[in-house]
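Notes from hallway chat w/ T.B., transcribed later so I don't forget. T.B. wanted the structure written out for a chain they're using in a teaching module, and asked if we could keep both sequence and structure tokens in one place. Agreed to drop them here.
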Amino acid sequence: MGKSTVDASAGFGLRDKLAYAAGDFGCNMSFALKGYLTIYWTQFMGIDNYLMASLLLIVQIWDAINDPIIGAMVDADTHKYRRNKFLAYIWFGAIGLTVAGALCYLPFPQAPGMVKNILFVAGYMIWDAFYTVANVPYGSMLSLISDDPIQRAQLSTFRSIGSMGGGLLTGMLIPVIIYDNQNNLRGEQMFVIALIMGVIGLVCFRFMVTNTKVRVDTTITLKEDAPKFNVMKAFNNFIHNRPAVGATLAPIATFIGMYGASTAGQILFQAYFKNAKISGLVGMISYFGVFIFSPFVGRIVKRFGKKEAVTFGSVVCALAYVLMLVLPITPDGRGLSLYVLCQIIAMLGGGIGNCLSWSLMADAIDYNEWKFGVREEGTTYALHSFFRKLAQGIGPSLGLVLATKLGYDASLKAAQTIEVATRMRYLVPIMYLGSYILMIIAYGVVFNLDKKTLAQMESDLKERRAKNEK
């Protein structure tokens, strides 16, 4: 079996980390727009809350289904690309994303109801197809750039920095632009914003594709009679891969909590704190944990281990949202200060997890090779992404339904009653707290690559690969 083109001799350095960071910055130029879909299509376009919750779930199921399809397609692709097939797919998807994000924000609020439904579903599906083509191979690239655990942790950290940079840019600027002085949404701005973000994303992807070097052979075989790729067997390997399952359950919990709380959080700032324009800035607090921990991530991993560090961080986050639930967060400056304080504590707890989460999947891909004798980067990451995407649909749908049950009326926009606004104040920490309890279970119980086991796996794989090269 032929080997893919690799550059094993190329020294790992800052360019690798910046290139990988640029990829997630580019992804975030599109992905960050998802946070405004619910508010846009209910408050500006006028789709009914329950109908919107259903549509969100439908498109997210499609979103989830196409991830393993794309992943299997990438794994099974034997075409000889000039550099690397993963990079080729990433670039193709990036080109489509340039305009695809804007299709989710076509501004026709006077269109008939059925036309609005079709516009939302069609626009989202087109955007999602291109996003998947770019993002699934991009997530798989981390395990191919380096097989060193410290370097992978650094790549994971820089991916989070790239994500954070995109999130900070969009999170701080978009709310200032799209909310008026009465805290109501100016939805007509979203289409142009999405186009601009698409162009920025394309530039970032180009930098990533041009500067990424592949050092790990993607076609390692441990037996001469290794069978051809089988998607069903790959799926079976995934569900028996405890690190992959644990590293997947954690973001499932995160997305259900984060997206479940997103609608309530936007209403909270519109109608409770009455300051929607700073909502993005407050929401960006969580990203600063990456800045705090990134200089120390290598030492933290070496001293404590990845599993141990992310589990402890999840416990701190859970405690932060217990505080948010019980502290007197009133609709004034004092209450807002307490809210921000709780978010800062959660940021400190989640910072190390944000740095390391992606490297956990790279380790899970290695675990697949260690236990089952095959590398299935595309499929393993795609199945991971499949369940993440399901959570990304369940979260906002559940959050919108709960907010509506608690009295949220989209037609009132920022003029929700104080009773409804107060219910949002409690819904936000409840959604987050539930997610971090699940994360503690995912990292602490299911994910089984503690510091000692990870070292043993790395040693065994190096020995096998050395024998395979002889």
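Follow-up for T.B.: The domain at 12-217 is CATH 1.20.1250.20 (Growth Hormone; Chain: A;). Might be a good example for the class.
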